[in-house]
Write a structure and sequence with these properties.
heterodimer; A: mainly alpha; 4 helices; 0% strand; B: mainly alpha; Rna Polymerase Sigma Factor, Chain: A; Arc Repressor Mutant, subunit A; 2 domains; 8 helices
Chain lengths: 79, 181
């Protein structure tokens, strides 16, 4: 694709999906929705559970890698 | 987006619960419009952009412990907003993103029919979200690659590569539909 083709495609794309107007504003004040969101959920994740879960997962993976060393390259590939 | 004062940012980061709540509301009111506008550029749907603005500030609220006041609020908020929009693009079905009728811009080329514009828009929605978001910001919104790179948390070279790949895939898709861009 040369520069001319690329410019033409860019122009077509801008015609199909026109740029958003500059500095748009929401149709309503979003603070009330924000307050509802803050009230609906706990503010912090249960860190102790995740710390325990992460440690268990890591230990499981380490044990599996020790038992099946051939799995190590597969793990590394998907990291 | 204008950054708040350092006192405000410090109160948000490590103030007392009362000072934090007040700082958060102030930052929300200062930045909601800019965050909304940024998200709207990506998702192109006002109602979705409003929901994602709230989602973004919810993530900001939870991640305040990772905020570094010395680096400013604007860029941090924009990165979180971009991530929230990208998550939405990954889960939303393409047909839910396009308006019922894609409006023609004022300076539309009369040789390009509404049907072709619709097909281009549909083909664009089929691109992978990470390619689409880069092309949307860099090509459609014509924003500097540096700004796009900062928002996406990638290098300028990676933005250029994603835009190139997006345009190449779009061109191939259109050619398969018999449209020669």
């Amino acid at each position: 694709m040369n520069t001319h083709d690329e410019d033409r495609l860019k122009r077509l794309l801008q015609q199909a999906l026109p740029p958003v107007e500059s500095d748009p504003e929401p149709g309503r004040d979003l603070w009330p929705a924000m307050l509802r969101r803050l009230d609906a959920r706990p503010a912090a994740a249960p860190l102790r559970f995740w710390a325990w879960f992460d440690a268990a997962l890591l230990a499981g993976l380490a044990a599996f890698a020790a038992l099946v060393p051939a799995s190590i390259p597969v793990f590394l590939y998907y990291l | 987006m204008q950054d708040g004062s350092s006192g405000l940012l410090n109160a948000f980061r490590q103030g007392s619960p009362e000072a934090f709540e007040a700082a958060f509301e102030t930052l929300f009111r200062q930045h909601q419009r800019a965050v909304y506008g940024w998200i709207l550029r990506i998702v192109r749907n006002p109602a979705t952009a409003e929901d994602l603005t709230v989602e973004t500030f919810w993530r900001i609220y939870r991640a305040r412990g990772h905020f570094e006041p010395s680096r400013g609020f604007e860029g941090w908020a924009r990165r979180i907003a971009t991530r929230a929009a990208l998550d939405w693009l990954r889960t939303a079905r393409p047909e839910t993103e396009l308006p019922a009728e894609t409006p023609a811009p004022a300076a539309a080329d009369p040789a390009v029919s509404a049907e072709i514009r619709r097909k281009i828009a549909e083909a664009f929605q089929q691109l992978a979200p990470k390619l689409r978001i880069a092309a949307t910001l860099a090509v459609i919104e014509d924003l500097p690659h540096k700004d796009v790179a900062e928002a996406l948390g990638i290098s300028v070279a990676a933005v250029k590569l994603r835009v190139f790949r997006a345009l190449r895939l779009l061109r191939r898709d259109l050619q398969q539909q018999g449209i020669t861009p």
